[in-house]
Design goal:
The complex is a heterodimer. By secondary structure, chain A is mainly α. Chain A contains 23 helices and 3 strands. Chain A starts with a helix and ends in a 12-residue tail after the last helix. In chain B, β9 and β10 form a beta hairpin. Classes of the chains: A mainly alpha, B alpha/beta.
């Protein structure tokens, strides 16, 4: 829901800048100039913003992946809101935007929030989701009040503190980026060194405990790292949306892979892409906060993964279903052609469209379309101005296979599952398209290589399949159509 | 692993064990001594404390009283000689790992911190997968497996632990007949190799043929001994039928006071 909403907004926001280009006045050159300034990296503010965004993309992607597989996404949300009072207190420490003081304050507040959640969960009968909601809201409220007070009392030095709400990558300074680099390197190193332990405790904590691993300790180290990476991302993304930078790239990666290390890699790449894109667009239109732009970038990646992920993507799945039903349609046409040929004891070569239309109870135009389908897949050729269909060897083989599958399955259901012969046809209509060669061999063995289906019609055998090539190129009447023994 | 054959301490000794689960006592005064090479079925009704017993034996739960010794030492010292098959539902099968990844986890305990699985560990894992006939599935993601296949993967992981004492929590729950037979065969082979196994089991009819010894449990040990000697109407009645009402009421009271 949230992602779809953001996706639409991305569409609304980008044109603001694109339109200017189309109007073709001064703003065109200024947009171009801005982009050139961004990519020349001359401006230190641009460099800090970009490097900072890349660093936070990496650390958020890595930690977020563990949050997602440990089903702790909401915990990330709570933690990121809970740090806000700490930011304010860090500022109050010496009334300036000192990165270290703010880092310490925010981390402490985050950890306190986490501890509160655990405390509420353990001492009351409230469940985790409620505890998370309580802590998130109350800490955030305190933080907002403190920040507003600071804005009112402080003098010139308060500048940039509001960046902590919605994020402003341009406000990153040299010290901020150094701190971000330290934390990101720490996160990468710890995850690389303890990958095995993190994987095991995330997947099966009970087994890890039984194998003697310090499960609780590993959990707390991970939470500490998480708090760190939330805090360093804060200035660029903002308290409100930082959890999205944890969850969204990781969620997109989760849809694309089945292996944890690939997920970590993908999530970092997505995080970096979204971070850099956010920094760029925020630079292009100066009054937009970076956080929402980054999160929209990440959400766009997620939407793409959701729609086009090769295995789980909605569009990909739809596409697979479509091509599957097209294949079934083709196979049904092949089967009808086989039935027509069988009906006249395999005399004569081609099948006229009229015969086929009668067999399928469809119009000539419909079967013409189906025959063309077969032609494009090299299953058949069309003759005499497209009035009759001739199977190619491949087409003949597939037709035999389908008919064989159908009749074998009918026989199997009647003989082995004791289903009445007049009940088996509809089942076989479905099964004929999905039976693999191995199952067919098994069926043949089980049925003692029977030659007739329950309705007394011959079951095409291996011979017929192999003969295909000779038959279709050979004379009109050939022994070997149907079952030969 | 089994170099100390000369003066063999018993694989598992539980003495006067009282354990609570979520602050409510579920096991009272358990005294059990399991000698080497036994295949023990832990039998009892729901809530009898079967899972609690094996978790406590592995040092995963705080004890109210009593102690656990594994091969003559506190269990923490000998965890490397203990293998574990948790209940299948205890993990998320959508987790992004392959079958091979899961079986390799059985080697982690031997690797210790920092070290990654080596080639020999992969070899071992492949061997174990072969034993449970799951080698062709090594590269599959685990959610594409049936219940029986998942259970085999868990068993392969335990085999990869190469332990001397195994705890298995309902390895037969929800598996197909073929898997059940395969698991029984592996358990018996392990026992022949001199390993000791405690297996939580639900089904009374098969319990009798699968296990040499039974531990009948219902909040306390009702009976422990060779299957032939204790699998009888009277003891089963006492395990399943006659729940000691006062015992559970007191547990109830202790639990609510602790809250």
């Amino acid at each position: 829901m949230r992602y779809g909403f953001l996706f639409i907004f991305l569409g609304l926001l980008v044109p603001e800048w694109v339109w200017a280009e189309r109007i073709g006045d001064i703003s065109e050159t200024s947009a171009f100039e801005q982009a050139r300034r961004f990519f020349s990296f001359q401006d230190p503010a641009v460099r800090y913003a970009l490097v900072g965004s890349i660093l936070l993309g990496i650390s958020c992607g890595l930690l977020g992946s563990f949050l997602v597989v440990r089903k702790m996404a909401l915990f990330g949300d709570t933690l990121s809101h809970a740090v806000l009072p700490g930011v304010a207190l860090g500022f109050l420490w010496n009334m300036s935007k000192d990165p270290v003081a703010i880092f310490v304050g925010a981390t402490l507040a985050g950890l306190l929030g986490g501890a509160m959640v655990t405390l509420i969960k353990q001492t009351t009968r409230l469940k985790e989701d409620t505890a998370l909601g309580l802590v998130l809201a109350s800490f955030f409220a305190i933080g907002i009040c403190l920040l507003t007070r600071i804005q009112n009392i402080s003098t010139g030095s308060k500048g940039g503190l509001d960046a902590y709400l919605f994020g402003q990558a341009a406000s990153l300074g040299r010290d901020d980026v150094i701190l971000m680099a330290i934390i990101t390197v720490l996160a990468v190193l710890l995850i690389a060194i303890f990958y095995k332990e993190l994987l095991l405790t995330s997947f099966d904590a009970a087994f890890a405990r039984a194998a003697g691993f310090p499960v609780t300790m590993i959990h707390y180290v991970l939470m500490l790292l998480l708090a760190f990476s939330v805090v360093i991302a804060l200035q660029a993304v903002g308290v409100v949306l930082v959890s999205a930078m944890l969850i969204t790239p990781a969620a997109a990666a989760y849809l694309l892979t089945d292996r944890m290390h690939v997920m970590l890699l993908l999530a970092s790449v997505f995080g970096v892409t979204a971070g850099a894109a956010g920094a760029f667009f925020s630079f292009m239109s100066t009054n937009l906060p970076t956080g929402p732009l980054m999160v929209m970038g990440a959400s766009l990646v997620f939407v793409l993964a959701f729609l086009f992920g090769p295995r789980h993507g909605v569009v990909s799945r739809w596409w697979r279903r479509q091509s599957r039903s097209a294949q079934i349609q083709r196979e049904n046409t092949l089967k009808a052609i086989y039935h027509v040929l069988e009906g006249r004891s395999f005399e004569g070569e081609g099948v006229s469209l009229r015969e086929l239309a009668e067999k399928r109870r469809e119009t000539i135009d419909e079967v013409r379309g189906q025959s063309r389908e077969l032609k494009t897949h090299q299953m058949a050729t069309l003759h005499e101005d497209g009035d009759s269909v001739h199977l190619t060897p491949e087409g003949w083989q597939r037709a035999c296979e389908i008919v064989r599958n159908h009749r074998l399955w009918e026989l199997y259901l009647t003989n082995e599952a004791s289903i009445a012969p007049d009940h088996v046809h509809d089942d076989a209509e479905v099964i004929e398209h999905v039976l693999g060669e191995e199952t067919v061999r098994q069926l043949e063995r089980t049925l003692n290589h029977a030659t007739k289906d329950p309705h007394g019609r011959p079951i095409p055998g291996l011979m017929d399949l192999k003969l295909g090539g000779q038959i279709m190129g050979g004379p009109a009447t050939v022994p070997g159509y149907g079952r030969t023994t | 692993m089994s170099e100390e054959n000369a003066k063999t301490p018993v694989p598992l000794e539980l003495h006067d064990l009282t354990v609570s689960y979520h602050k409510r006592p579920v096991l009272w005064g358990v005294d059990v001594e399991v000698t080497a090479g036994q295949l023990v079925g832990v039998i009892g009704p729901n809530g009898a404390g079967k899972s609690t017993l094996i978790k406590a034996a592995m040092g995963m739960l705080p004890l109210n009283s009593g102690w656990v010794k594994v091969f003559g030492e506190p269990v923490e010292k000998n965890l490397q000689r203990v293998g574990y098959v948790p209940q299948r539902e205890s993990v998320d099968w959508d987790f992004p790992v392959s079958v091979m990844d899961v079986v390799l986890m059985g080697r982690y305990g031997h690797l210790g911190l920092f070290k990654r699985p080596a080639k020999s560990d992969r070899e071992k894992a492949r061997e174990c997968l072969e034993k449970v006939k799951m080698l062709p599935y090594a590269d599959r993601q685990i959610s594409n497996l049936s219940g029986g296949q998942q259970q085999r993967v868990f068993l392969a992981r335990a085999l990869a632990q190469e332990s001397d004492l195994y705890f298995m929590d309902e390895p037969f729950a929800g598996v197909d007949a073929a898997t059940e037979t395969a698991i029984v065969a592996i358990l018996q082979e392990l026992r022949k190799q001199g390993k000791t196994l405690l297996v939580v089991h639900h089904d009374l009819t098969t319990a009798r043929e699968y296990f040499d010894s039974l531990l009948l449990l219902n909040m306390r040990v009702v009976a422990f001994g060779p299957t032939k000697a204790i699998f009888n109407q009277e003891l089963l009645q006492r395990t399943y039928g006659g729940r000691l009402t006062i015992l559970s009421e007191v547990a109830e009271a202790v639990g609510s006071k602790a809250d």
